[in-house]
Amino acid sequence: MLHKTKGIILHQIKYTDSGVIVQVYTRDFGRQSIMIKGMRNRKSGKHNVLFQPMFILDLIFYYRESRGIQMLKEFSVSYSPAEIYADVKKSCIAVFLAEILASVLKEESPGFELFDYIENSIKYLDKSESGFANFHIVFLAGLSSFLGFEPGTRNDPEKKYFDLLNGTFVSMPPMNTPYADPHVSDLLAEFFKVSFDKMGSIPMTGSLRNEVLETIIRYFSIHLPGLKKVNSLDILKEIFI
């Protein structure tokens, strides 16, 4: 049956000499694998750029729940993040976040609120002219709430350690569970409550930003054991050093 929905491109792989399979997070059907024929030939190849990470498309495809790969019929651009791909730093963030999303989003878990969060975040990054160096950290902090392990806020400044297993701030280093040191925990407490509009107010060196990012990824991996190694992490860390 034909269905129309909006989709966020996460990843694509070569399938045949002329076709690709695209991983898409759709608003109505969660993550889907969609076959696109002819994408690698000379006539249709010009459209390949539209299937890069974080492009937002209106899709019409043949959907069958029992089928692992759906077939695309038509598509049009809903939102083109042109400014993201015109900026090296933004494009590195986009590729990194798309890799995270492709790993943690499940086929069986559509969610309008989660889709809207990702869509609005892409548009915010695309339109940002400066002060977006902390964007990926704030995005991941917000994403955790949609995935079921939203960290608790810190109400007491004496709670200097962030317990990664329980997602709470505690006064003493927890026994036998991973935790962040006081300095990183202070920064995490700020990131867990800040909005994109205020993310530039958190002063960070490149090395400290990377330390906070690694801690958040570790937090994700504890609560999402299926999280794969993030191949684009090293490049992102180099970009924002």
Q: State the helical fraction.
A: 25-40%
CATH architecture of the largest domain: Up-down Bundle
Give the H and E element order.
EEEEEHHHHEEEHHH
Number of strands: 8
Q: Please write the CATH class name of the largest domain.
A: Mainly Alpha
Proportion in β-strands: 15-25%
Estimate nothing, just give the exact number of structural domains: 2
CATH topology (level 3) name of the largest domain: de novo design (two linked rop proteins)
Descriptors for this entry?
241 residues, alpha+beta, de novo design (two linked rop proteins), five-stranded mixed barrel, three-stranded antiparallel beta sheet, 7 helices, 8 strands, 35% helix
Nutshell version of this structure?
The chain is globular. The protein has a five-stranded mixed beta barrel with strand order 1-2-3-5-4. It has a three-stranded antiparallel beta sheet with strand order 7-6-8. Helix content is 35%, strand content 22%.
Q: What can you see in these coordinates?
A:
Strand 1 and strand 2 (20-26) form a beta hairpin. Helix content is 35%, strand content 22%. The N and C termini lie far apart (49 Å). The longest helix is centred in the C-terminal third of the chain and has 18 residues, at 206-223. By secondary structure, it is α+β, with helices and mostly antiparallel strands. The strands form two sheets. It has a five-stranded mixed beta barrel with strand order 1-2-3-5-4. Helix 2 (88-104) packs antiparallel against helix 7 (233-239). The chain folds into two domains: 1-80, Nucleic acid-binding proteins (OB fold (Dihydrolipoamide Acetyltransferase, E2P), Beta Barrel); 81-241, Recombination protein O, C-terminal domain (de novo design (two linked rop proteins)).
